[in-house]
Amino acid sequence: MPLYDSARTGRTRHPTWLVLIFSLWIATVCNIPLWREWSRMPELQNLRGLAVGAGFAVTIAAAMALLFSLLNWRWTLKPAITLSLFAAAFGAHFMLSYGVVIDTTMLVNALETDMRETRDLMNLQMLVTVLIMAVLPSIWLWRQRTPRRSALRQIGGNLLTAVLALGMLVGSLLLIFQDFSSLMRNHTEQRYLINPLNSFYALGDIAAKPFKRDERTTLPIGQDAQLTAAPGKPPLLLLVVGETGRAGQFALNGYARPTTPELAKEHIASYRNAWSCGTNTAASVPCMFSHLGKQAYEGRTANYEGLLDVLQRSGLGVVWIDNQAGCKGVCDRVPNTSTTQLKDKDLCVDGECFDEIMLRQLDARIAELPAERRAKGVVVLLHQMGGHGPAYYKRTPAAFKKFLPECTSNNLQDCSQSLLINAYDNTIVYTDHVLASAIAWLKSKEATSTPAMVYVADHGESLGENNIYLHGLPYDIAPDVQKRVPWITWLSPAFEQRSHVATGCLQKQQDVRISHDNYFHSVLGLLGVKTSVYQPALDIFQPCVGVK
Length: 548
What we know:
alpha/beta; 2 domains; eight-stranded mixed beta sheet; two-stranded parallel sheet; 20 helices; 16 strands; 45% helix
């Protein structure tokens, strides 16, 4: 039986009632993640705290009513409420399930998510949450009839509703302001839980970006780039951009579990104190390939070319091979290819390929580069799926599931933390194999080139610590596990001679704090590319030049 069959009874409902009903629904039910977090804060565990929570709920309801009153027109009110319900429902699901918050970078990451990643995020809990919070209320909403009113009466009614809502908003805030301001200062993450205003603010911030900087133009850098002449064979550098790598989960960095048995047999250097530029791919990858560094990159007023453009300008052959959701713009001006459409009975399952598929692409992709560039040297970028969640179990072939049983659900809260860690650690075991296989391939090229490899992850991951999962929290409040990343370097003996950088020296630098700010300049320095944008002080290899 329908909740309200207005079409059958012929009754109408004043739109102001719809504004009030759905403002209250959103402020209460759709903000369960916010109220859950508030219930956990010690300073709110009393009657005063309950009053503050009630006052803030009124504030949110008044803010939504103010917004809806501005959109209270015959053809816009129902769509606006429906959009708000679905935005709130999806936001509530992700905040409840993974402990994430909704801000600009999280929304950018969501908008750039491909179908494979979207499929991993879908589960029964999402469907139930969206059904209860958005679908059923929307059905009821669209069954309501609203009266036709003259434009003058509509404007007057909207203005009155807006004034009342604004008054309620200001009044409720004033009543709780002392406690509220203290909470916001001490728990800044709470502002990202106000649903769906968090999503609307993030959308507005994204929409305003063209006014903050010219998105249509990409300014050139490194126009004076030149590859330093060196004796011997041309360089062959493999740059592996790891996805979702926790530095602390690598046995090379002191982790108790044997997650990197194959790399342990190689003569490599592993930095244990490396930090990312962001907490998600959309933020970190463009930043790490920029010459600006995190602070200047985030505050830039123009877009610039990146590392790959400078390498290509120096005369090197450059190619990007992607097994992820794209290069986020950094490979747009160099040859690039994706593995998404490849068919391989051993390495591709259900439209997704394991990372080893990229190694099978290497020879063919390099052969496609111009011969004059190959003669000078080649840089190949491999963009992994790595440890991308929440379906960690999908990232590893059966032969590399060393730690069992593992979590086989994409609703991570259904799994114990031990099963979740098993699933994630298996992705590190597989990454270890992929990197060791890449080194083996590089060694096979020593007769014709001077090979080396640098592996750096774009960001880390939360695995249930403090009920936080995945990644993407605002950088200032994100836990260290989302920001500390692995950085591994392998140099062949010939490359050590060419660059005058000794692996033994790098190993002694393993605890020096470095970050993605160093990446651009370190790669240029390692290859011997001279340009005015290169900063030796940010080159992590520079202290080991000429040092044994």
